[in-house]
Amino acid sequence: MSMPTPANPDYEDAVRGAVLSMPAAQHLGFDFARIAPGEVEIVQPYRPELTQHNGYLQGGVLGALADFAGGSAAGTLLAPGWVNMTIDYTVKLLAPARGERVLARGRVVKPGALVTVAAADLYAVDGGEQSLCATALVTMRNVKLAEA
Amino acid sequence: MSMPTPANPDYEDAVRGAVLSMPAAQHLGFDFARIAPGEVEIVQPYRPELTQHNGYLQGGVLGALADFAGGSAAGTLLAPGWVNMTIDYTVKLLAPARGERVLARGRVVKPGALVTVAAADLYAVDGGEQSLCATALVTMRNVKLAEA
Amino acid sequence: MSMPTPANPDYEDAVRGAVLSMPAAQHLGFDFARIAPGEVEIVQPYRPELTQHNGYLQGGVLGALADFAGGSAAGTLLAPGWVNMTIDYTVKLLAPARGERVLARGRVVKPGALVTVAAADLYAVDGGEQSLCATALVTMRNVKLAEA
Amino acid sequence: MSMPTPANPDYEDAVRGAVLSMPAAQHLGFDFARIAPGEVEIVQPYRPELTQHNGYLQGGVLGALADFAGGSAAGTLLAPGWVNMTIDYTVKLLAPARGERVLARGRVVKPGALVTVAAADLYAVDGGEQSLCATALVTMRNVKLAEA
Prior knowledge:
With 148 residues, the first copy, chain A, is an alpha+beta fold.
């Protein structure tokens, strides 16, 4: 779909700042490779402390990345003074997340005033090859911050 | 529902060992308060590095705990030599996870030979008061380890 | 959880009327056995036109019943002049829905001003015996009807 | 993703026959516009008996169509003698399904030997214009029919 023009001209800094300042985001250790209207790409480097037994990123970590990717994509369309929070996410784990990093691509599926639906596809990058390892749907609630 | 008798008499040690030896579980820092046939309770202490901006546990952390709780509950019914892995989970975030710890209670909804469905309810414990902060459905796949 | 007192004293008639007047509800042919604050029970009689090949109720029919049950349970808590609509539902099909009827029990998990989360458990009744055949989570959006 | 070559050269007839012979499919009254390896398009004409109050197709109907579309897409990759059945589906209702028909496009996201994940996007066609009205993820289980 064609994305609406972001209501916040500083959407890129707003999303980056809001997400990467979260302790839980820093605990995973990802960064953004791209922030565009209605779309983001998160890069999560391989870290041994995020794995299950066989050295692949654990499913709960992939779910958290999907949530961050979908929520961040939705966040690019928020007006100044608004924030969003996750209502729910459904994540399907499709293949082992092996390799040097995971790319989590979030995109808005349906923007709304109060509720926005996004999707996320996660790709494991192993020796430069990308393979789909998880897919998710994420629903976000948009909330106007109280006036000061 | 009434739970089947675990096929593995050592189910408690098996689940505890399999889950707590995962680096991703140690990275969250939870423990089990209870492991029974088809049911577990996970205790996740408050840790600042798992929070979002307002000091509550972040949604991706709650989703990961729901996955661990549902998957562990399902794991109590596995026969020796079998393991399980998450096919998917859907988590609904219901209220801020504020307080000193989160209890994630997993239970088997429908055990199966190859696919088991579990649920998880997460309670934030704040000043001793429990309040529901998330609920989830988790589908697990059961796999027999290859013979040596 | 303890349910709030319904904001609409006529909640039972309101839910029954709103749901059973829907053509899609009549096309399935169910009725309510119970409507209480935050809880409903739907009774769907066996009908051959709702089955898959083996004579059991088809999965999409079970999903629709779960949506109606969860949404109706949430609807009991609406204030006069408000309606609700489904944001999403996730349904896990657990066992064949064989027998003379299906009971779909919906209950509110978390009431909210704008978003309410409900759950539904579906039981196939076969020769008087009930067995769980599906479970679902349903998220509803609450909307105030425009003033006349 | 690139789809595997169907293991059944008669996949198109197999899917069409298996799905359209279901009473529950006939009760909705849809047909297939396209059946290709890993992809299908279902056409559901507007029918007043499938609507909610305002004349739009009801959410449970959309969920059922999403299930049929995802499951049929997955079914195109089954080997002869295999069938599939829905493990679960999650459907997000995005906009009113108004207009003369709904197109439900299913596609395989990840084929597997025993578990296949598919997605479905539903478009309402109103005066020839298509607009996304629902999106879903569907997990199917593949089962080999018992030998005669």
